[in-house]
Design goal:
With 362 residues, the chain is mainly beta. Helices cover 15% and strands 37% of the residues. It is elongated and about 115 Å long. The termini are far apart.
């Protein structure tokens, strides 16, 4: 069969046209692929939390600040890190976010089911410092450092449970404990130095726990001490707020009661016995009598002076208040605790209660 040459030419021309159109179409798809994939990825990252398999939900939580019942001290919560964990055997992280408190109401998508909700406020950490927190147990190992604390905006933490109701209350409590010297006077009646005054005096805390686990409630042990066995200039210089641990006293203190109203702050310390690396936290009065320097170290809430209430030592979220009368010369060093024969004091302990709060959504 003879096929005209014109037919072959037309077929070859049509094939080339189809090939050019196909290449043009491929280029168009290639130009569209990256933007479309990026758009899909962004949509998933905004709407879904890790491991989203169950129905998503929003939790409404009322947040309260825990402060001492009769105290005017109300710490501020500037921002908070919110952790939601699955309430099961593994307690894996379900979602995390950082938010400012007292203002915006924020919604976050989490998976359904029972949850453990942990809130840490004023941590001093960058949000990227939390990248290793993938479970509740991992969060419980994180420690806060006293060197970074500010008594106006202290580290606060709290936790609660949501059983699927979508609402809960949570109380944020400071890790810090408050030690208040309310008043100080001398009574040296019948002594050879009767009528002498305490001069060039100061008050400070020694054997202070330098760090504390942010979700820990009780049983605090000492890891590293600040002002170990005495006032340490290097330790004091390392503090963001040196007023946490030390303050000056009036120039001359005699038999008339001096209203001091000095507040010091420390982390809990419930160690059961003293050793080289773990000692009792002490409130120390230091000053001169007739030109000679003395110290009156007082074991806080233990020994001759406690426990007044609860666990011996310094516990989280308690306020320890002291009215002190010096009745004898003190010790010859800042770490030799005094007894009742040298000091008369009234010590009170106040637990912390929740104040009116505000609602946040997350």
């Amino acid at each position: 069969m003879n096929i005209p040459l014109s037919t072959f030419a037309e077929t070859r021309k049509r094939y080339r046209q189809m090939r050019d159109e196909n290449n043009s179409l491929k280029k168009g798809y290639a130009g569209l692929t990256l933007p479309y994939l990026l758009l899909i990825t962004l949509a998933v990252s905004v709407r879904c939390s890790p491991g989203l398999q169950d129905e998503a939900g929003t939790v409404r939580c009322r947040i309260f600040i825990g402060t001492a019942a009769s105290s005017s001290y109300i710490p501020e919560a500037e921002y908070a890190d919110i952790f939601v964990f699955n309430d099961d055997a593994l307690m894996r992280l379900d979602s995390y976010q950082r938010m400012k408190l007292k203002g915006d109401k924020l919604d976050a998508v989490t998976t359904g089911g029972k949850k453990i909700i942990c809130v840490v406020a004023n941590s001093g950490k960058d949000r990227y410092d939390w990248t290793g927190i993938n479970s509740y147990n991992a969060l419980c190992k994180v420690r806060s450092d006293l060197r970074n604390e500010n008594p106006d905006t202290p580290t606060l933490s709290g936790e609660t449970y949501d059983r699927g109701s979508g609402s809960c209350d949570i109380v944020l409590e400071p890790l810090l404990s408050k030690v208040v010297l309310q008043s100080l006077r001398c009574n040296f009646e019948g002594k050879a130095y009767e009528g002498a005054t305490l001069d060039n005096a100061k008050v400070y805390l020694t054997n202070v726990n330098s760090s504390f686990r942010i979700m820990e409630r009780s049983g605090a042990s000492v890891t590293e001490m600040l002002n170990a066995a005495g006032l340490n200039a290097s330790d004091m210089a390392s503090l963001l707020s040196p007023e946490l641990l030390s303050a000056r006293l009036p120039s001359k203190i005699g038999s008339r009661k001096e209203e001091c109203d000095i507040s010091l702050w420390c982390y809990p310390n419930n160690c059961e016995e003293e050793s080289l690396g773990s000692r009792f936290t002490r409130l120390v009065i230091e000053g001169e009598i007739l030109g000679k320097r003395y110290w009156w170290p007082i074991n806080i809430n233990r020994g001759d002076f406690g426990p007044v209430k609860g666990v011996a030592g310094v516990s989280r979220n308690c306020e320890y208040s002291f009215d002190i009368c010096l009745t004898s010369l003190g010790s010859d060093g800042p770490d030799k605790a005094v007894s009742k024969s040298q000091v008369e004091l009234e010590c009170g302990i106040m637990d912390w209660v929740k104040k009116d709060g505000y609602e946040e959504y997350f």
